[in-house]
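TASK: fixed-backbone design
INPUT:
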């Protein structure tokens, strides 16, 4: 089989770099994007200066503040980042149609098909890097390899601002001394188990037979076996991402009861997250729509720096937006709707927090039970208020506490 040529491009410290570009006085300072020090939530990006203090993406803001009290904390502006992102993909699409949008600032290019077009291949890749940097005013790192896994690992090696290629035949040497945490399949729990087995580097994994890995980690063990050897046959995902996913309900009779309205909203959020999970999508914008009994329609939206997929978190935001609209209203409602848009395929950084891993598993488990026994087999406490209205099957009554979903 012909060796593929996959290029991975990633903007360095994206949000922080954009902030520095917009306000050059921030240059050289530890910039942390994601929120103010006392706020809930995590840092979305830390500039390289801030990383020197031990701050990294995914870290709770309060912890970041403890480590780096002199840091410049910025809430961030999703609309601006999104504009830079669009520019990035416009530049990349000039070189090849085979581009996967892995996240706002991260792309895979498959140049295998274009190879005959470009006489000096490495020169072309340099040219892409140069064009992106010139047109965006931001530094990017580029990794080149025979598949997505190795290209991405090459980018980590190239950071910040470099270009690194895993050449044919050089895979083993490249992987051998990398820490196990650099493999995407290795979460915090897996790391703990491997460390107990005295496995710290990818090369250490080679000593474990496939069957042993499988007995330790199930199907993930197989994945690990292949990943540690640099084997990855995943194609680029270029199917277009839907613009948005939305769910809305027009009531048979106008509703005034706030608890019942919130129950409807919870139900809609729940319904909304199923297609997101199925397609591995995360939303940057959550929007709530209400229509009053006089037919006037109002919409509230929130832009999120870190995209979301979990039902509990989306519901919390939707509830907030809904109450802003409804609390000031003197009218009952005839419609409520929720929409997730600006969808991306990347996993949010917070996935590396243990609870997010649990969230994801919980989401998939819920989908499985519902797939088998019907939607009504698992309901949140809020949704239970709606039993009968939506014809949920009643014979099974597992109740899911919303609290455990939102934690
Ligand atoms: Mg980046």
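OUTPUT:
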């Amino acid at each position: 089989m012909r060796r593929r040529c996959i290029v991975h491009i990633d903007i360095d410290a994206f949000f922080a770099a954009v902030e520095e570009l917009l306000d050059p006085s921030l240059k050289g300072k530890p910039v942390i994007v994601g929120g103010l020090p006392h706020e809930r939530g995590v840092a979305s990006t830390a500039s390289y200066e801030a990383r020197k203090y031990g701050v990294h993406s995914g870290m709770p803001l309060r912890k970041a503040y403890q480590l780096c009290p002199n840091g410049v904390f910025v809430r961030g502006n999703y609309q601006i980042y999104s504009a830079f992102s669009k520019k990035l993909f416009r530049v990349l699409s000039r070189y090849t149609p085979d581009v996967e949008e892995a996240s706002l600032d991260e792309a895979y290019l498959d140049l295998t098909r274009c190879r005959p077009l470009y006489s000096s291949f490495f020169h072309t890749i340099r040219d892409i890097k140069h064009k992106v940097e010139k047109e965006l005013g931001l530094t990017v790192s580029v990794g080149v390899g025979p598949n997505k896994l190795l290209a991405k690992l090459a980018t980590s090696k190239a950071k910040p601002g470099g270009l690194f290629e895993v050449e044919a035949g050089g895979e083993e040497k490249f992987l051998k001394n990398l820490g196990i945490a650099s493999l995407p399949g290795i979460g915090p729990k897996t790391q703990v188990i491997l460390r107990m087995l005295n496995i710290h580097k990818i090369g250490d994994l080679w000593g474990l037979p496939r069957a042993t890995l499988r007995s330790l980690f199930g199907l993930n063990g197989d994945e690990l076996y292949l990943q540690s050897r640099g084997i990855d046959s995943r194609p680029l995902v270029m199917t277009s991402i839907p613009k948005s996913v939305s769910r809305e309900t027009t009531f048979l009779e106008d509703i005034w009861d706030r608890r019942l309205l919130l129950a409807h909203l919870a139900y809609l959020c729940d319904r909304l997250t199923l297609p997101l999970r199925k397609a591995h999508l995360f939303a940057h914008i959550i929007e709530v729509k209400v229509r009053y009994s006089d037919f006037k329609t109002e919409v509230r939206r929130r832009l999120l720096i870190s995209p979301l997929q979990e039902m509990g978190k989306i519901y919390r935001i939707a509830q907030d937006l809904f109450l802003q609209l409804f609390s000031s209203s003197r009218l009952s409602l005839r419609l409520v709707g929720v929409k997730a848009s600006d969808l991306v395929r990347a996993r949010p950084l917070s996935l590396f927090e243990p609870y997010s891993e649990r969230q994801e598993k919980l989401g998939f488990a819920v989908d499985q039970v519902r797939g088998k026994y019907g939607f009504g087999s698992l309901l949140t406490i809020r949704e239970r208020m709606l039993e009968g209205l939506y014809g949920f099957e009643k014979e099974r009554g597992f109740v899911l506490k919303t609290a455990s979903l939102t934690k």
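COMMENT: The chain is about 40% helix and 20% strand.
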